[in-house]
# Entry
Amino acid sequence: MQDLEERLDGLAGEFLQVYEKLGIADKAAQVAELEKQVADPEIWKDVKLATEKNQELAKLSDEVQPWELLKTQIDDLKEMLSIADEDLKEEITGQVEAMEANFAELKKALQFRGEYDGGDAILRITSGAGGTEAMDWAGMLERMYLRFCEKHGFKVSCLERVVGEEAGIKTAVYEVSGLNAYGWLKSEHGVHRLVRLSPFNANNLRQTSFALVEALPVIKADTDVVIGEKDLRVDVYRSGGHGGQGVNTTDSAVRITHLPTNTVVAIQNERSQIQNREKAMEILRGKLAQMQMEQHAETLADLRAGESAGWGQQIRNYVLQPYKLVKDTRTGFEETDPEAVLDGELDDFVRAYLEM
# Structure
């Protein structure tokens, strides 16, 4: 049993280093404090505050629970091992192997250590030049990401969706909620290129299409990304539905332009102008934070205008004809089963990006 004791001691030592580095004990104390707060009936007099505290509790619990559970399992097994005999060696070996595998999975989550990685994300998909072909490609990407989010258990809320005249979408905006949602999706930010035989061309010619995917961190607090009012132009207009019909009869849709970077965000999904403005500002903060990270800018004043969908800027190529291959241009990672990728199997691409 000596070898098992040494193996378990090694696991416990490495685990404790990571546990302390992540401050799990302090976070567990925060969980306990939040549980007290949301259990107090008084806090529910302010429903917005109570909801925010509840969401904070849920996310923090999701982060802390697996680490606390593994710590308890290691401590229990060390105690059991000190009194166990050879008859239990096989059973204990199995438990140690399971804990090692669990710890390896938990360590993978440490890749999500960016400032916004643990939070929610805004996913915006926009078709590039190319009419119906490009809109159909944007629709394919939309399905891919919805399947990816479903497989990871993320909650997805549609903020805005404009369908194409014949197929696909012109644009779609989703809010993705869940542990490390932005961390998982940030690798998808950029232009995606498709090469295939066109289903919309009578001659069945090979066609190249582009779509822009924006993965942005959700930043609700205006103290995290401070935007001066003088830098904003806010326009309100009437929301429009399919066929030109009004979603409502008030000027509830909001378009906000960040003048220094000419960054524009428009939202018309919510019922009220106030809600649309709040959501538009949330997305704008995310866009500016994303630009700041990409451009390594110290302040918002240092930002340049963002990218647009076009040739030569793609981060990933999806080739369905004359051969089958999906290749990430940044990491070099390849997958020869495009159908699986387009069905939401993106984990290997994300991990290759995070490890880069």
User: Anything to note?
Assistant: Confidence is low (pLDDT under 50) at residues 242-248, 307-311. Residues 121-355 form a domain with the Alpha-Beta Plaits fold (CATH 3.30.70.1660). The chain has nine helices and eleven strands. The radius of gyration is 24 Å.
